[in-house]
Design brief:
alpha+beta; Endonuclease III, domain 1; 4-stranded antiparallel beta sheet; 14 helices; globular
Amino acid sequence: MTAVSLTPAGPFSLAAGVRFLEDFTPACYSGTAHEVLRLAFPADDGHSTVAAAVRQEETADGAAGTVRAEFTVHPGVPDGDLDGSPADPASAGAGPVSTESGSWPDEAVRAQLARILSLDVDGSGFPALAADPVVAGLMAEFPGLRPVCFHSPYEAAVWAVIGHRIRMTQAAAIKARLAERYGRAVQVAGRTLHAFPTPPVLRAITRIPGLTEVKIERLHALAEAADAGELDAARLRATPVDDALTALRTLPGIGPFSAELILIRGAGHPDVFPHHEPRLHAAIATAYGLDETACGDIGRLAGIADGWRPYRSWIGLLLRARAERIGRHAS
C-alpha cells in the first residue's frame, strides 16, 4: 500500500464531495460524509485497478486540510473469452502490482486521484468569483464542493452509452452489475468494492442483460478507443475545447451532450460551458431571474457563464447540485 498527499489550492471539502457522490446516481456510492472516501477504479493505464482510501485532515482555522490517500495497484486481469461468465476468480484475486517492477507508477495514480477530486486544478482564484451574488450564494450553500469526476473519460463514455434513452437508476444498476460480475473485487478500509471492468475485459464481454446488441458493440468500440489513447484525459484537456468535443463525437454512440459529459466530468476540464445540457440552462435562468425563453438562448447563457472563467465547469456543477436539491425537497 502506498500513501500520498494532495494539498488543495483554494477551498476544498472532501466531506462535501462525498455528500455529492451519495446523490449522484452514476456513482452508486454509499458512505458517510465525515469518514473515509473509498474508491475502486480502472487505472489510466487501461489494465490495472486501483483501490484507494482517501481522507482529509481537519484544520483549526477552517482552511482546506491536506488530503491523504492510501492506495494499492492491482494487476490487470488477463484477456479471456467472456461469454457471459464472470472473470476467473483466481485471476481476479491476484495480488497487487509491485511498483518496483515497472508497473503503473505511484505518481500516475496520484495524478488520477487528484483529477477525480478536481485537486489537479489551482482553485485559489475561485473565491474571487463571489463578486457575482449568484455565485456567492452557491459557494455559501455548497462550501468547498468541487466536481467529483468519473474515474476516467473511459468510464464517463461507458456511462453515456449505457444510460442512453433509459432511466438513470436502470443504467446505474446495469453498470453496478457489470462491476460486480466482471470487475476486480478489492478491499478498501474494511469494505469490499468492485471496480468497473478495464477496457480489455469490457471488450471481451459478449452479453450484458438490459443492453441491446448495438449498445454492446458501442461499448466494445469505446474500450478499443480507450486502449488506443483516444480517451486519454491529459490529451483531451490539452486539446482546444471545440476540437476535443469534435473528436469525442466521432466515437460510436457519443453525441454532443455525451461529448461534453466526457470532457467535463470524465477528463475533469474545469472551464467548459456545456451547450447541450438543458437542465443546467434552466438552472442558470432560474438563478439569474430570467424568463423561461432565456433557457433556449444559449448565447445569452454562455455570456453569463463567461463571468465564471476559468471555473465554468465548477459553477455549472454547483448550479446542478442546487437544482437537484430543490427537486428532492419539492418531491
